[in-house]
Amino acid sequence: MIVNGFAFAGIHCGLKAGERPDLALIVADRPASCAGVFTTNRVVAAPVVQSRALLPGRAQVVVVNSGNANACTGAAGAAAAARTAEIAAEVVGCAPSLVQVASTGVIGAPLPIGRLESGIPLAAEAAAPDGLDRFARAIMTTDTRPKVRVAQGPWTIAGACKGAGMIHPNMATMLAFLVTDAAISPGDLDRIWRAVCDRSFNAITIDGDTSTNDTALLLASGDGPPLQGDDLAAFAALLEPVARELATDIVRDAEGGTKTIELTISGAADQPDARAAAQAVALSPLVKTALFGEDPNWGRIVAAAGRSGAIFEPGAVRLWIGDTLLYDRGVWQGAGAERAAHETMTDAEYAIRLDLGAGEAMRTIYTCDLSPEYVRINADYRS
Amino acid sequence: MIVNGFAFAGIHCGLKAGERPDLALIVADRPASCAGVFTTNRVVAAPVVQSRALLPGRAQVVVVNSGNANACTGAAGAAAAARTAEIAAEVVGCAPSLVQVASTGVIGAPLPIGRLESGIPLAAEAAAPDGLDRFARAIMTTDTRPKVRVAQGPWTIAGACKGAGMIHPNMATMLAFLVTDAAISPGDLDRIWRAVCDRSFNAITIDGDTSTNDTALLLASGDGPPLQGDDLAAFAALLEPVARELATDIVRDAEGGTKTIELTISGAADQPDARAAAQAVALSPLVKTALFGEDPNWGRIVAAAGRSGAIFEPGAVRLWIGDTLLYDRGVWQGAGAERAAHETMTDAEYAIRLDLGAGEAMRTIYTCDLSPEYVRINADYRS
After folding, report:
1. Per CATH, the architecture of B260-379 is what?
2. S-S: B180 plus which of A265, B1, B157, B346, CB 3.0-4.6 Å?
3. Is A6-252 a CATH 3.60.70.12 domain?
4. CB atoms closer than 10 angstroms to residue A383
5. What is the mean pLDDT of chain B?
């Protein structure tokens, strides 16, 4: 898949052991509109501090390294992020302010900038319009597979992401990079990107932990049809499924996860209530272990919503697993319904819907179960 | 241990299989001052709805059944809770409004009131001043051992609790009952009890799930020395360690838990920030799995605080595990400190302190680790 105006690279520069790719590059033919959504964690990695200050705006290069998060690295980390942008700017021939930098990997270790000094020119040389798959491999840490999605309509949209929980070694979490040929201003791109991220990359939760490095960028080259009037809505409609599938790919690849759940809270009094209830249910260890056990344990789901702070009458609640109504306004629907729900839960992907009966607000998020394997992976002593 | 004015019983009435005790009674010689702290979950069991409406006030009987939570049981559940109070009132010869009722066990199943009809008179007959151990056994569900603590000073305080996470089958969670011979008004007792619960039963977290049935009662018979002036503070000081040890006993007995952690957030800007950071760290699956793995993974602890909403500068944070300063204002303290911290983490109980460097507020809570065993236990299909 080619997106006019962009070239991609993924090479090995020496941050990871062996020959695994650890340096990824996106190079635009000229400054592209760029919008970014970043971690809300108070503890923020140096590349995020540097890059988010430049957006929304324009970008011509995106440099991503895996194998080192450049987080909790103090003044030396900030200098390394600045130097990374300088190297890339020099190689491509643009201003350093047109370079977006992202890092993922081990926290607290100094970024060996020398490997980027030699690596970035090699990556720029290797960059090619058909290089997105190599890019996707070079941003992986504990991911088991590269994650690439594309869409074609009036515009072409392609993207790659990485993530599998905020996991071993640690901080090795969510990064996403999408490009499009749409001709769209940075301001419009930013507005659309924030709304789309809210329903995709910010609608997935594996273990409730956010990282110091989370970054989701969208670049638009302007090589495709210009957007006017209703085009913005059409573009957002083309973009959203790509972002949502990429986000869901992260959940599908969750370490120790065996199920991908689309969880919808409906009938909430307002949007904050819908979000609070969705978070509480999706992050409840008791709910997550029941999902792993394929146990339609409606009591745990209703009780998790009950402690979320969302306002509702317990007697007005309804719960569906797949198409099966399991609990209807205070009444358990019997052993037959429970068997049908259990049957649904043996699938790898299915939906759960909890209606609070308190209003019209709705929120859908994507989550996974909690398995002994998750504990085993994350309890491994790092050294 | 005898507390003047109270008798206790624990018998088998047929709610649990086998001969295991499942009905517990406290009978006071006359109406005692009574204070209660209850679940904040919106989904609340029938006995909680009934009992909390009567407090603070006086109580002469406490009826506790295990094996059935009488939760999500609708109008029939409310009638069963009311009937339980009537039976006990009749047997003891007091008003039904002087009866506190608590239930713990399986959710959603109707409470077989017939077994209480025959059981409560037998329990009242068996009640004896030295019966607290039998009481403690009869309120257990998945607990592995009874939990009893006592203190003697100017007043005698004794109590029992049950809890081991909100766990299989489900809703089988925290109940605590303390008695004292202090002569104290219901209003004073309520004020002291709320403050003490905040630092004991409301300062423990195993998996973040609260139940529909959580209840902590304190009854004062008035047979001991009356409280005047500074006595209230002295009484609270005698009470707090009893409550805290009982609460910590629940963490020590957490199913699948192998470590008991005293987690202190200090240097927070205000109390809500201290609480938010403590909750985020204590409930982070990544922190909890690292505790299980005896891994001094400071990055996970700092990052969990970072997403808590608490305001602090990442460069001002300090972290101790046991007595070892591991992370000092942005600087990792090296491999020697990490080895010392790891050594501490091999203990069954130890302290972690995170200073946010943002103010003077402090919060201490008690939590446990997350083991594969927790997942195994809670993933078991109920049927």
Report:
1. Roll (3.10)
2. B157
3. yes
4. 10
5. 90
Q: Which residue of A has its CA nearest to B69?
A: A299
Average pLDDT value for residue range B323-349:
92
Chain B residues touching A44 at Cβ < 8 A = 306, 314
Residues of A in contact with B312 (CB under 8 A): 42
Greatest Cα pair distance in chain A:
68
pLDDT, tens only, A216-233? 899 999 998 888 888 888
Q: Say whether residue A212 is in contact with chain B using an 8 A CB cutoff.
A: yes
Residue A130 CB burial class (10 angstroms; 0-12, 13-18, ≥19) = exposed
One of B73, B104, B156, B173 is an active-site residue; which one? Answer: B173
Q: What is the pLDDT of residues B133-149, one digit of tens each?
A: 999 999 998 888 999 99
Query: Cα separation of B273 and B257, whole Å?
Result: 27
**Cβ of A306 and B212 within 8 Å?**
yes
Tell me if B286 and A166 make a contact (CB, 8 A cut-off): yes
Q: Provide the b/e sequence for B2-12 (b: ≥16 CB within 10 Å).
A: ebebbbbbbbb
What are the residue ranges spanned by the domains of chain A? Answer: 6-252, 260-379
User: How confident is the model at residue B210, as a pLDDT?
Assistant: 63
Distance between CA atoms of residues A47 and A101, nearest Å: 5
Q: Does residue A218 sit at the B interface (CB-CB below 8 Å)?
A: no
Query: Is A166's CB within 8 Å of B303's CB?
Result: yes
**Quick check: A280 and A329 in contact, CB under 8 A?**
no
pLDDT single digits (tens) A340-374: 999 999 999 999 999 999 999 999 998 999 999 88
Q: For B185-222, how does the pLDDT look when each residue is reduced to its tens digit (9 = 90+)?
A: 999 999 999 899 888 888 887 766 666 678 889 999 99
Q: Chain B closest CA to A327's CA: distance in Å?
A: 10
* CB distance A299 to B108 below 8 Å: yes
**pLDDT tens per residue across span A282-323:** 988 889 999 999 999 888 899 889 888 899 988 899 999 999
Lowest mean pLDDT among A268-277, A329-338, B202-211: B202-211
What is d(CA B258, CA B235) in angstroms, rounded to the nearest whole number?
33
What pTM was computed for the model? Answer: 0.81
Measured between alpha carbons, how far is residue A167 from residues A136, A170, B209, B333 in Å? 19, 5, 23, 22
Respond yes or no: is residue A104 known to be catalytic: no
> Which among B247, B223, B248, B218 has a CA at the least distance from the CA of B349?
B248
Please name the member of B211, B330, B371 whose beta carbon is closest to the beta carbon of A375: B371
Q: Is the pLDDT of residue B167 over 50?
A: no
Going from the C-alpha of B86 to that of each of A52, B69, B92, B94, B360, the distances in angstroms are: 66, 19, 10, 9, 50
Q: What contacts A58, CB < 8 A, 6 or more positions away?
A: A31, A32, A33, A34, A98, A186
Find where tokens 């960059």 sit. Answer: A127
CA A258 and chain centroid, separation? 18
Dihedral angle over CA of B359, B364, B365, B368, nearest 10: 100
pLDDT of residue A171: 43
How many secondary structure helices (H) and strands (E) does chain A include? 11, 15
Q: Helices A285-292 and A271-283, interaxial angle, to 10°?
A: 60
* Shortest alpha-carbon distance between residue A236 and chain B (Å): 29
| pLDDT tier at B303, thresholds 50, 70, 90 | confident
